[in-house]
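## retry 2 of 3
previous attempt timed out at serialization; input unchanged, resubmitting
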Amino acid sequence: MASQPSYRIASIPGDGIGPEVVHATIQVVETLAKILGTFQIEFTHIPWGTKYYKQHGRYAAEDCLETLRQFDAGLFGAVGAPDVPDHLSLWGLLLAIRGPLQLFANVRPVRTFPGTKCPLNTATEGIDWVLVRENSEGEYSGQGGRSHVGQPWEAATEVAMFTRVGIERIIRFAFETAQSRPRRHLTVVTKSNSMRNGMVLWDEVAAAVAHDFPDVTWEKMLVDAMTVRMVAKPQSVDTIVGTNLHMDILSDLAAALAGSIGVAPSSNLDPTRKNPSLFEPVHGSAFDITGKGIANPVATFWSAAEMLSWLGEKDAAVQLMRCVERVCAAGTLTPDLGGSADTQGVVDAVCAEIVKLG
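## retry succeeded, writing output
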């Protein structure tokens, strides 16, 4: 009898409601592993975040990359605190991981989820999209600087860096993602009418890569027009790919259009699998509800399901999502979705559904 596969997961709860939703998710995933009996999973707590920053002067340990490489994947909560500038927290932790580990594919599935109500009357069949975001360069490259600080003529530059290799690998990944979906349709989002260098390169690389995917219907669209299309003609959208900044914005819009950012997951992937990938909810720290016990854990549940699928436990991922969907459909919802359940109440309900699998 073959031994069960075993996975080591770095748990990085971070700030705000991050610890609450990560703790909730660990309970659910450990219950799933126990009931299914098809894999083993071990979570190791890593205390990086604002508290660590205030104690050590940095958001993560100096050897954070070497530490993470010891794990099969990471489950991340949120980063950011009201008393620390956002650019310090983001660059100190999340971007300090994504770039050096080359987690270049940020995947954000969005669909109308049980318990959510799509606010679009144009989405007569609901929403089912996958947004693919270039995650390692572009507008978030960190290139640029400031001069003449404090003077009326102070200047600041923010340089968007695009490389052919960076564009090609994310475009190819997006075509493969579209190819795996029933509609096999991809929209490449740029702004090449006004950004005549980097965005034109995006268009050229997309056209070249498309030749390798004759079974995928593809098109290019300007980012501003894409916002209108997502609202006016949601059924025409399936898989979308774009730059770091453009997809950061469009993915939040997509989650809101689908019903709630509280259920939106994301995956920071290294498709080469040379480095461990990182999975996290989209919603952020949400300090307005921190400590109240009402944070919605569904986005982190879904992120964990994406993690299990990435690790090869696809059946377990499907089973987890079915349990979560049944709980939401039955009305066990946190206040952000119009319900009255607290975080632990959702956890208990999902665990009860998982137990039924046994």
